[in-house]
Amino acid sequence: MPRAGLTTQRVVEEAEQVADEVGLPNLTLAALAPRLGVRMPSLYKHVAGIDALRRLLSIRAKQELADVFARAAAGRAGAQAVTAMLYATRAWAKAHPGRYAATVRAPDPTDDEEVAASNAILDIALAGLAEYRLAGDDAIDAVRALRATLHGFISLEQAGGFGLPNDVDRSFDRVTAALAETFTAWPPKTERERVAKVSSTLSRPSRRDRNSPAATARRSGARAARDPHPRTDG
Amino acid sequence: MPRAGLTTQRVVEEAEQVADEVGLPNLTLAALAPRLGVRMPSLYKHVAGIDALRRLLSIRAKQELADVFARAAAGRAGAQAVTAMLYATRAWAKAHPGRYAATVRAPDPTDDEEVAASNAILDIALAGLAEYRLAGDDAIDAVRALRATLHGFISLEQAGGFGLPNDVDRSFDRVTAALAETFTAWPPKTERERVAKVSSTLSRPSRRDRNSPAATARRSGARAARDPHPRTDG
DNA sequence: ACGTATAAGCTAATAGGTATAGCCTCGCAC
DNA sequence: GTGCGAGGCTATACCTATTAGCTTATACGT
Fold first, then answer.
1. Domains and CATH numbers, chain B
2. Over chain B, what is the mean pLDDT?
3. What average pLDDT does this structure show over A176-190?
4. Which residues touch strand D (CB under 7 A)?
């Protein structure tokens, strides 16, 4: 019998298709094999198992998402960049729900390749926020807010969580606008501060820490060789 | 041999424990049965199968979450209520990750019981936002923003997505404060409007629709008996 | 108290999924 | 052309869900 001529890459590509069609949790080797014209055990010649396949899928998906971010933010800054990143990501997630789901997975901290893919997303998101001139922890808080809002909206939407007839696109517009606006006054005033309306120096100690050496050090890549906190986020 | 004396309720309660311990996706009947002192097939006398069990789990979890919202918002309003709801939910989700995950599931639109549980969450969240005096689509957009932000943060945190050493509690404080603040100027200005700085009447057509009959009708529960859009939302 | 219907438990068997072992052979390198 | 490694296969084992059909504890009516 002629060989199917599979490669790891081919297997992962088909797995992406399947994941997009039936959802990441329903991606099985059993479903994948016939689509590639082989029997199930043959897949083990190319991927080490279902877990390894999921890992490869995640890495590729994270790279794609980083790309989506990068293209959206290219040539834009501030609110424009944020808005573009949010819309582009939602559109990509709609077209590729399985891949999007794969981007959420937290990497094993010792897995350099997947950690790198995660970091690419973080770095590009941070770059997209550059115009807001945030630094240190404030910048991290902001990307976390960005990722959380975006992910929450997309995953609820994909889960069918927005059941009311009200227009979901409209809601997304509002969320996007709110987020882009929020970053212009970041960090936000806390409730206590809003009520007490005192001078910002006194009432917003968080600002003091903004560019502190400690905060900057925490961000820097210069850490011990086997850092217990390899740099990954969101 | 003596009977184990199971009930559906007992099974679901133990399932909650398991889900909290090992994660909702890892909840299996096989793991559950020995913990209840019976063989796997015996569980079918009390629940119709793993899917039915998940459904029951979701319903209970949604009721619990609605309760968490209600308790948090009780006696508070506006930013205070929003803040309290967010913190309480995150704390509950941390203590009960499996149950929290179960709240995300979208109900089958024909499943009255689960739809009702979902609606309870929505209603209480809307009530928590009452002080902001939003109406019609604006109110729906706001709860969606609330749920999306909250869910995004919690699910990323639970997935281990916040790998950087930066303090996650601090980030959550910021996100919370930003959200509570955002609702005071809802709907947010779009990027175009912020740039063009014209009068709000002209530049913010969305406000015109706020209390329109159409918008109100869309929200109302008065719909045809077998409504294609039973009232549910994130 | 007793007898019985029913519900609650059991064993056994089936159907899918993951994974490993071990064989067979295509097809490239030389 | 031949040798051999990579890529495919069958067979098998194990895990989870589910169904069928049996047994018996126990609640309840008399």
1. 1-47 (1.10.10.60), 58-219 (1.10.357.10)
2. 87
3. 93
4. A 1, 3-7, 38-39, 41-42, 45-46; B 1-3, 28-31, 40-41, 44, 48-51
